[in-house]
């Protein structure tokens, strides 16, 4: 049984169990929000690092992202659609952006749990100076698991959500370090 | 208030049962109304005097010092923090992803909900030890304790009801059906009214604790979560997570006064020094609003994902748990300055009334 069928049948099952009295799964959330933080030290100045990652409209530095399309640049409420290798997309909205602090905060407005098994995801990426004209990039995420109700299946539980987000961050930060230190 | 409880399809037997009960209730209510005029407004007015008296008493005792019980959801613990020194006194292990908290102002108890463990943990504040674990429901989150110390009210996110629990025996002594996903709970200072923020019904339910019946429901903004009744018992405030505003409710008329916009993803509210303090999770701020004019006074920068917020017994200092930063912020209610921070465990939520006067020797 493929994942989509599984997710779909679970949805049907949960609807049958709770009847029509209950949850609107897109708004209700599971009880426990998760968090993930990943950092990497890069042998390049903060300004140099920010020049690569600071534009909300260009996620090209992340190896999983094939295309970034969006509107309103780095303004509050700017949007972008990230297209991944296999054609799946993630829609995101900018919450705040500061060139001065070298930090931006965004949230996912639309993603299939097959692509990333999370709900209510928000994230901050920032660059800080470290000793010796180096930088530390920190990527933080806060999110709920893919399955919103009690007793989630294994591929949509808290661990699955944390593992997926950790993978995205680590993959991106490793590639960023490689790219910037190669020059 | 009745419609959402009607369940179609496989629940036809209960529907029939409910219909009969609803009919009986309606007849009963009509009879009661013909005998009495609505009691709410005068009861709320009387409350003001009580509250003023109890506020006076609290001020006299403030020398004892306050202690915070901060639920750390990510590492299954509660940090007990001395609020004068801003130093943790001890950490209790509490399993099941603890989130909700209710510290009794009159007894030596504090109560913690664990939504994943489906439990309420009882802490003896004189020793800061866990003394009982009560199993209940499918997703206990919001919690409040009667000002007299009993009973305890526990909102169940998945079962759409409030459990009434005897805090000493741990026995469930009643249930109140609410709207969908009841979240924040709070009681009026005299204990007469219990309010529930029914998150997924976009409403507040007002419950008369003498009958355990809902007397009215009030529409709020979208997805009300944190709920706080002001210290005088005249108003209630709900933080609407989805519409980025708070709802101000007049309790005497049980009507919405106004929705006031705040930062992104407001979570909870505290009242101090005639000001409304709202935690804005995504904005990383506390929005401060004048209680009289309902005008915005300031936004205070705090840590990441500010969530639980409460006021000290002296009514002056406001404390904010920042979920991502693992810090408790202390704010001066007069100057609106951040005075200091204390470390917490991982993922502090402190959802509820988490401050009490020091009991431990």
3D architecture notes:
The complex is a heterodimer of chains A (about 180) and B (about 350). Chain A is of the alpha+beta class and about 180 residues long. Chain A has one domain (about 30-180): START domain (Alpha-D-Glucose-1,6-Bisphosphate, Chain A, domain 4), CATH 3.30.530. Helices cover about 25% and strands about 35% of the residues of chain A. Chain A is built from 3 helices and 7 strands. Chain A has helices spanning about 5-20, 45-55, 160-180, and strands at about 35-40, 65-70, 80-85, 90-100, 105-110, 120-130, 135-145. In chain A, strands 1-7-6-5-4-3-2 form a 7-stranded antiparallel beta sheet. In chain A, a hairpin with a 7-residue loop joins strand 2 and strand 3 (about 80-85). Chain A is globular and about 50 Å long. The model of chain A is unreliable at about 10-30 (pLDDT under 50). Chain B has about 350 residues and is mainly beta. Residues about 1-20, about 25-45 and about 45-65 of chain B have low confidence and may be disordered. Chain B has helices spanning about 10-35, 40-60; strands at about 65-70, 75-80, 85-95, 100-105, 110-115, 120-125, 130-135, 140-145, 150-155, 160-165, 170-175, 180-185, 195-200, 205-210, 215-220, 225-230, 235-240, 245-250, 255-260, 265-270, 275-280, 285-290, 295-300, 305-310, 315-320, 325-330, 340-345, 350-355, 355. Chain B starts with 11 loop residues before the first helix and ends with a strand. Chain B is built from 2 helices and 29 strands. Chain B has 2 domains: about 1-35, no CATH class; about 35-355, YVTN repeat-like/Quinoprotein amine dehydrogenase (Methylamine Dehydrogenase, Chain H, 7 Propeller), CATH 2.130.10. The chains are: A alpha+beta (about 180), B mainly beta (about 350).
């Amino acid at each position: 049984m493929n994942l989509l069928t599984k997710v779909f049948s679970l949805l049907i099952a949960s609807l049958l169990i709770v009847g029509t009295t209950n949850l609107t799964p897109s708004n209700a959330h599971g009880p426990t929000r998760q968090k993930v933080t990943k950092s990497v030290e890069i042998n390049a100045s903060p300004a140099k690092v920010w020049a690569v990652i600071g534009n909300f409209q260009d996620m090209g530095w992340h190896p999983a992202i094939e295309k970034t399309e969006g509107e309103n640049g780095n303004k509050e409420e700017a949007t972008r659609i990230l297209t991944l290798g296999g054609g799946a997309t993630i829609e995101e909205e900018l919450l705040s952006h500061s060139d001065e602090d070298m930090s931006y905060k965004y949230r996912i407005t639309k993603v299939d749990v097959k692509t990333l098994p999370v709900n209510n995801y928000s994230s901050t990426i920032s660059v800080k100076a470290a000793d010796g004209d180096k930088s530390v990039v920190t990527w933080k995420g806060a999110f709920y698991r893919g399955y919103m109700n009690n007793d989630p299946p294994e591929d949509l539980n808290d661990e699955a959500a944390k593992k997926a987000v950790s993978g995205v961050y680590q993959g991106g930060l490793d590639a960023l370090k490689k790219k910037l230190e190669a020059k | 208030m009745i419609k959402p409880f009607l369940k179609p399809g496989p629940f036809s037997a209960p529907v029939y049962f409910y219909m009969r009960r609803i009919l009986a209730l309606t007849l009963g209510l009509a009879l009661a109304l013909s005998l009495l005029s609505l009691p709410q407004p005068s009861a709320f007015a009387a409350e003001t005097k009580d509250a003023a008296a109890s506020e006076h008493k609290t001020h006299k005792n403030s020398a004892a010092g306050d202690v915070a019980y901060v639920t750390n959801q990510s590492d299954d613990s509660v940090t007990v923090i001395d609020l004068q020194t801003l130093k943790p006194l001890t950490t209790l292990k509490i399993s099941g992803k603890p989130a909700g908290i209710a510290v009794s102002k009159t007894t030596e108890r504090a109560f913690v909900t664990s939504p994943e463990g489906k439990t309420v943990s009882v802490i003896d504040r004189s020793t800061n030890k866990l003394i009982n674990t009560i199993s209940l429901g499918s997703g206990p989150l919001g919690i409040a304790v009667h000002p007299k110390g009993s009973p305890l009210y526990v909102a169940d996110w998945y079962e759409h009801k409030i459990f009434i629990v005897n805090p000493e025996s741990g026995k469930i002594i009643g249930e109140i059906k609410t709207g969908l996903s009841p979240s924040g709970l709070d009681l009026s200072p005299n204990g007469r009214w219990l309010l529930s923020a029914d998150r997924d019904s976009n409403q507040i339910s007002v419950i008369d604790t003498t009958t355990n019946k809902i007397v009215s429901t009030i529409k709020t903004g979208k997805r009300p979560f944190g709920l706080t009744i002001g210290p005088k018992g005249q108003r209630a405030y709900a933080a609407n997570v989805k519409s980025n505003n708070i709802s101000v409710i007049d309790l005497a008329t049980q009507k919405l006064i106004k929705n006031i916009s705040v930062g992104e993803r407001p979570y909870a509210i505290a009242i101090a020094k005639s000001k409304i303090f709202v935690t804005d999770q995504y904005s990383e701020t506390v929005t401060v609003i004048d209680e009289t004019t309902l005008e915005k006074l300031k936004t205070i920068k705090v840590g990441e994902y500010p969530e639980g917020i409460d006021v000290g017994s002296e009514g002056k200092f406001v404390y904010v748990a920042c979920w991502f930063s693992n810090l408790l912020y202390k704010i001066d209610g007069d100057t609106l300055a951040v005075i200091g921070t204390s470390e917490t465990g991982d993922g502090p939520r402190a959802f509820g009334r988490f401050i009490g006067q020091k009991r431990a020797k």
